[in-house]
Amino acid sequence: SLFDCCGGDLNPEFYFLCDLRSAWGIVVQVLTALGFLISLGLLLAVLVRWMCVCGPCGRRGVRGAACASTALFLLAVAGIFALPYSFVVGLTEQTCPVRVFLFGVLFGLAFACLLARVLAVRGCRGRRGWTEPGLALALALVQVVIAVEWLLVVMVRDRGPCSYSQEEFIMLLIYVMVLLAVATMLSLRFLCNSASYRLVDILTLLLSVAIWVVWITLLTRGNRELGHRPSWDDPVISIALTANGWVLLLGVPCTWYLFGYCQDGTHHASKNANYYSFLL
């Protein structure tokens, strides 16, 4: 038919990649592809800047560490934009480990970078060094351990297929939700005590919280009560991934320069502010 572009011999698992009657799959692909390319472009720009900062035309220290933190964050955002494809494609033995592992790890790294940046700003006393990216990696590593342990228990110890209930999937993300909650609360507290933290950063975290509340509610209760479970489960997660990816991409990288300020009566480092502004 006019709206069936998949072909009769296509595996049903890939049907949403090309079915025009199920437009959510195609819309998600377009938006995630665009977001992924933008994130990748920003990441490459940061890496080039990093080489300059830490090379002959720059100096090591807080600027190199800031580049590292921003690169980690953009790497996580790029991964978030790539992940919806594993949900557009049906659940298989190949996509299941990808979903379980990367969903929590990528969001864990993104929220860990935000939390580490908030903590660095609150405790800023001159040069922050490499504590910030180190803290972000350490916080994200916890989610890596959680995901790997679950995969080992299910697929190695129990020798079973990779499968999960929606409730079990949510349980695997509790630590990520803690990171998001702590980052949001500290940001709100910091907003009340410093003019250097702008409303856009708070809105980024609050919108992320709202997106998580909505998709978790739909996944655990809403879809079942509406009679659309499990047909709506993967679309809900795919749309949530895409939306949160764009929130992080638009709300954070363009405002990293704000964190170059540590108010202690005056802005102590105008050079840091000039450096962060390259992301604008």
Question: Could you explain the architecture of this structure?
Answer:
The protein is mainly α. The chain has helices at 23-53, 62-82, 85-88, 95-122, 131-157, 166-171, 174-191, 199-225, 233-251, 270-276. Helix 1 packs parallel to helix 9 (233-251), helix 4 (95-122) packs antiparallel against helix 5 and helix 8 runs antiparallel to helix 9. It is globular. The model is unreliable at 257-280 (pLDDT under 50). One of its GO terms (molecular function) is protein kinase activator activity. It is found in: Membrane.
Mean pLDDT: 78
Q: Any guess at the CATH architecture?
A: Up-down Bundle
Number of helices: 10
**What would CATH call the homologous superfamily?**
Rhodopsin 7-helix transmembrane proteins
Strand content: under 5%
Helical amount: 55-70%
Q: Which SSEs are present, and which pair or pack?
A:
Elements lengths: L22 H31 L8 H21 L2 H4 L6 H28 L8 H27 L8 H6 L2 H18 L7 H27 L7 H19 L18 H7 L4
